[in-house]
């Protein structure tokens, strides 16, 4: 299902990205509309797959997850059975916040959030005991300069 997104939809999406916990009345006020039309648009965007699940963003460091590693993985195995096993291993590990399959010299990159280097080593040892990889390089993030879940909605062409 293709959803047509107009200027009002973009404003609603921007408000939801900024703070999905605000009331429907507040969103309607901010986008210059009333509650019912805004609710109908949100419902349409949900049904169309534009809006996914709602979550809260937690502060990892405040909760003691002080180490963020970017893990570069090269593999010599590319068969379906290996991939299924690898993907299951990633899905089963809550430390993995993001996983991407890449084009180029590196096959996968993972964003792994853990309490410290020892916790990363535990993660690493568990991963390599489950699935064969050719090479693993871990890069410790020294400082998070920018992190956002906001999409650049101004780049969406209006239908």
Automatic annotation (TrEMBL):
Q: Which SMART domains match?
A: HTH_ASNC (SM00344)
A GO molecular-function annotation: sequence-specific DNA binding
UniProt keywords (A-Z) are: DNA-binding, Transcription, Transcription regulation
Q: Which residues form the HTH asnC-type domain?
A: 5-66
Secretion signal, residue range per the UniProt entry: none
Gene3D superfamilies hit by this protein: 3.30.70.920, Winged helix-like DNA-binding domain superfamily/Winged helix DNA-binding domain
CDD domains (UniProt xref): HTH_ARSR
Q: Which GO terms describe its cellular component?
A: cytosol
In this record, what's one Pfam family? AsnC_trans_reg
Provide one Gene Ontology biological process annotation: regulation of DNA-templated transcription
Is Transcription among this UniProt entry's keywords?
A: yes
SUPFAM superfamilies this protein is in? Dimeric alpha+beta barrel, Winged helix' DNA-binding domain
Listed name of the protein: Transcriptional regulator, AsnC family
Source organism of this protein record: Phaeobacter porticola
């Amino acid at each position: 299902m293709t959803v047509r997104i107009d200027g009002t939809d973009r404003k609603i999406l921007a408000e939801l990205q900024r703070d999905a916990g605000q009331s429907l009345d507040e969103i309607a006020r901010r986008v210059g509309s009333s509650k019912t039309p805004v609710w109908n648009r949100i419902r349409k965007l949900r049904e169309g797959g534009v809006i996914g699940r709602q979550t809260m963003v937690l502060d990892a460091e405040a909760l003691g997850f002080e180490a963020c590693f970017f893990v570069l993985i090269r593999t010599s195995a590319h068969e379906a059975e290996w991939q299924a096993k690898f993907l299951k291993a990633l899905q089963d590990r809550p430390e993995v916040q993001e996983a991407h399959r890449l084009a180029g010299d590196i096959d996968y990159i993972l964003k792994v959030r853990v309490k410290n280097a020892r916790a990363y080593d535990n993660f690493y040892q568990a991963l390599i005991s489950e699935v064969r990889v050719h090479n693993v390089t871990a890069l410790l993030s020294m400082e998070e300069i920018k992190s956002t879940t906001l999409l650049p909605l101004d780049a969406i062409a209006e239908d």
